[in-house]
Structure formats: structure tokens, C-alpha cells
Amino acid sequence: MKPLKNIEVIEFSGLGPGPFAAMALADMGAKVTRISRMPAAGTIPKPGQGSFLNRGRQEIHLDLKTDAGVAQACALVQKADALIEGFRPGKMESLGLGPDRLMALNPRLVYGRMTGWGQSGPMAHLAGHDLNFLALSGVLNTLGEADRPPMPPLNLIGDFGGGGMYLAFGMLSALWQARETGQGAVVDAAMIHGVTHLASFVHGKRAQGAWMDQRESNLVDGGAPFYRCYETRDGRYMAVGAIEPVFFRTLLRVLDLEDRFADCQSDRTRWPDMAAAFRAAFAARDLADWSARFDGVDACVTPVLTLDEAQNHPQMAACFVDREGGPEPAPAPRLLSRSDAS
């Protein structure tokens, strides 16, 4: 039995983080109904192959520019537990579907709002993308090599980590509150807020004086030679994360560098020499060779796989499910009964 099987969610069709949150809720059993715009005359909308973010819900088409369409949407929301929308601030209000009206119809409603900049502030009305939200939050300035421009980390941090996942978490929190009090809430999920919260570790280190703003100057941003990626002889990469001394010692043993660096892991003056030695060592063998040498070894060293290779790795088996169109990411996290977990 899925935990959210009695929760009904109305999703107003959007892009990226909103659909991701709806997918996450549907994966856990929520009944999600997506409201999409009317298709163009003579066309039949079809879900595209690989549209994983759209899985697990039914779809209806309404013309929200008409009174009839708005009335139908209101009727659906009146019976629902939650709503998801990802329009610019004020758009839902202009359609007659803002939280004041809908929560008057349904006081228990959890009204989930997904934006980049938030519902208020001097930039709330502006467009933006993941890269922009990371840039303004300061997080983008921490990513990449020291002597090159900041590196866009796909759109995982802002759209999905700081956006859709925080929206889903906020909605579940508000649903629990509605269950306890009978009163719904507006969930204002802004990507700049979620990203800033995700970066609490970094902000905490800065407050302690233990984080430098220069890229590649810190323990986990590529500054430490024992926490970065190294190229192999065949042009592939191995990821090294041997932070703790016990793993660092094992790394040195496999690389045959124990005599040179065993007692200087924390000595930053030795890091350039250490990095050069690591580069030379990894460049001497192919990825398959290094993968075999570190297989089953507790050193926090792994091959950097392609997406196709990841699907076929035995440790990744539970991370994918086979559907009609082929493998796709499985619902996460896994919820295990006591018997399953033992």
C-alpha cells in the first residue's frame, strides 16, 4: 500500500520543478490530475517517450480563459487535498484561481506555488532559469575550476533539488498540518530559497571561518587532491573522495604512494605535489583497470560512469524500473516494510 493513496492533487500543467513534485507525490500513491490547456484544433496530444516527469497522473484539458473552464477547475479543486501551480506571481489570481478564492471553497486545501524568485520582492515578476537562481544565491560562484567561469551543474540544484523537492516536502508538511488542524496553507516554494537552504553546510562553514570564496580552495569543491576527479589513460575519469584518514591511507596504498604522502594529508603546502602524483598515477592505467583495482576496496574511489553504464551497474539496479519504453528512474526513496528491511 502506498502511503499517499488517499491524497488527491490537482496539478496545473507547467515545466520542470512543478511536474517533478507532482511525479514524486504520484510515485508515493497520490492521485494526481493534471489540468492542461486545450490542444490546438485538429491535434491529439500524446505523451512523448521518456516523459518520466509526467508519469502517474491522469490529464484533462480545460480552457481557463473561459468561465466554464474556471468553474470546472474550481469544482476539481474543491474536492482535492492539494494543488500545484508554477506560473509567475499573479497569474493564477488573474485567472480567478488564486489561493483566496480556492481556499474559501476548500479550507483544507494545500496550495503549492513553485517559482524561481518567490512571490514577492523586486525580481518576483522576472523570468529566470536554474542558472540564474544559482547565480543570485551565491552557490554558482562555488562551482567549477578556479581559473575558469563557474560551471553550470545541469539544472539539478535549482529546478529539482532546491525547487521541486522542496515543493513536495512543503506540501507534505502542510498536508500533515491540515490533517491535524483542518486548515490548509499556501506553500511558497522559491528556488532561491530552496537553494540557499540546501547550501546551509557551506554557509555554516563560512560562519566558522572554514570556507574560502575562491573556487577549488576548500575540502569538497575540488581544492583537496583527495576529493576530485582524475583522468585515466583512456580518457575516462575516476572520482576520488578519500576525505577520512583511513580511506586516504587505502587510496595511497592502491596508488602505491604510501611512502610519499602518508603523513601529510592535511598539509596544504603538499597538495600541489600530491595532486600531480595522483594525476600521473591515474593516467597510467585505463578506467577498467582502476575500477577493478578499487572494486570492493574501502577507499571512496569510483569510476565516473555514463548514464547508460549507470543503468547496467549492479549497485544501481534498484534505482531503475523497466517500463514499456525501457528503463526509467525508480520512485525514491524506497519504502520498506519491516519484513522487507530485515
From TrEMBL:
Signal peptide: none
Source superkingdom: Bacteria
GO molecular function terms listed in the Swiss-Prot or TrEMBL record: catalytic activity
Ranges where the record places region Disordered: 322-342
UniProt-listed PANTHER family: ALPHA-METHYLACYL-COA RACEMASE, SUCCINYL-COA--D-CITRAMALATE COA-TRANSFERASE
Protein name: Alpha-methylacyl-CoA racemase
